[in-house]
Amino acid sequence: SPPGKRVGFAIVGLGHLALEEVLPAFAQSRFARPVALVSGDGNKAQSVAAQYGIAPKALYSYDDFDRIAHNKQVEVIYIILPNSMHAEFTERAAKAGKHVLCEKPMATSVAECERMIAACRTAKVRLMIAYRSQYEPIDRAIAKMAQSGQLGALREFIAGNSQRQGDVNQWRHRKALAGGGALPDIGLYCLNAARFLSGEEPTEVMARVWSPPGDARFTEVEAAVRFTMTFPSGFAATAVSSYDSHESRFFRLQGTDAWAGMNPAFAYEGLKMQSARLMDGHDTLIEPHFPAANQFARELDHMARCVRENRIPHTPGEEGLQDHRIMEAIYQSAREGRVVTI
Ligand code: NDP
Questions:
Q1: In testing the pocket of ligand 1, which one of 38, 81, 188 has its CB within 8 Å of the most ligand atoms?
Q2: Which CB contacts under 8 angstroms, 24+ apart, belong to 266-272?
Q3: Between these two residues, 280 and 16, which has the higher pLDDT value?
Q4: Which end of the chain has fewer beta carbons closer than 10 Å to its terminal beta carbon, N or C?
Q5: Catalytically annotated residues
Q6: Measured from the CB, is residue 181 less than 6 Å from ligand 1?
Q7: Which domains does the chain show, CATH number per domain?
Q8: Nearest CA owner, ligand 1 atom 42
Q9: 293 by DSSP, 3-state: which?
């Protein structure tokens, strides 16, 4: 679309994801453009605004954010703040009459998710959670294979998403800001993929969390989570996610006839698909090639089109809420040492 027809986005929080991935991705989007910035650092906001051609009068601090209601160019507010701030800024954005795109994890509790959904419903604005993998063509191809029966009956999903998290001063290590450790930050990718690839919802979960004793990074949040979700069809999903191992980013979805997977999965780029089935007694592996896609640009465009076409996003608030219900069950299972029903 020409610039004047594109949907205007305000970016809230100018951290790593916003500066290194989201803002650059607008160049590859077709329907979205950045028109405002919200930051606690006025100098940084000014230099980023100059870089992206954003008007100096379209810069806001967290305190004067509510003035954004009067900026007609802003149609969507994209929240890229620490997790504990998602609920507050979603509610304030909805009050300002703006649609909301919110980073994952949606919030830090089920209760916050419910408040966010209610606020957007009351204000009659759209709410989308930025589950970028659900906009990735390879993930979508595997979901289609699985749900059209090409793998046979689904049996197991096995996944890992682990990376070392070094900086003890990061908000990710503070429970009040992050809500949890590896689980809501990176384990969530495994959890959400099991659901959207299979198209099924788990009914039971069994989990353990673990942290290396005496490690200052993990006094408030877990280093690692290991969990198994079971689904009524007999399908089960097992995942391991850690802030303290180097490293994994993969999944494999196994059915009675074939498997399909990604390694690497969950990353921003360089993703690869693998799949194999038995043919005439031989295991045939295929590695289909997909043209590279920018997940962030696809996500921005999906939200922009939902706004223009008055449609509910593919990953609405309810998608985030369901993941938070499951994450709360995972923590409960780890605490109580038993299977928890969802
Ligand atoms: P960063 O720490 O790099 O950035 C967060 C930004 O939030 C800061 O730069 C700051 O922006 C603002 N902020 C406001 N208050 C605080 C505070 N008390 N402490 C720290 N920052 C604050 O985080 P990320 O960019 O890595 O993550 C932001 C969000 O994006 C999280 O919810 C995370 O889960 C999600 N994320 C999603 C990814 C994905 O692939 N979808 C990947 C990475 C993150 P300013 O200086 O402008 O005020």
A1: 81
A2: 266/133, 266/161, 266/186, 266/189, 266/190, 266/193, 268/21, 268/295, 268/296, 271/136, 271/138, 272/138
A3: 16
A4: N
A5: 104, 189
A6: no
A7: 3-132+296-311 (3.40.50.720), 137-292+324-341 (3.30.360.10)
A8: 17
A9: coil
Q: Is the CB of 133 inside a 6 Å radius of any atom of ligand 1?
A: no
The interaxial angle of helices 317-336 and 110-123, nearest 10 deg, is 170
Residue 93 amino acid letter: A
- CA 306/CA 303 separation, integer angstroms: 5
Check if 40 has its Cβ closer than 6 Å to any atom of ligand 1: yes
Residues 251, 289: Cα–Cα separation, whole Å: 17
The identity of residue 121, as a single letter, is R
Q: Sign of dihedral through CA atoms 65, 69, 73, 78?
A: positive
* Ligand 1 closest atom vs CA 83: 32
SS3 assignment, position 47: helix
Quick: pLDDT tens for 106-163. Answer: 999 999 999 999 999 999 999 999 999 999 999 999 999 999 999 999 999 999 999 9
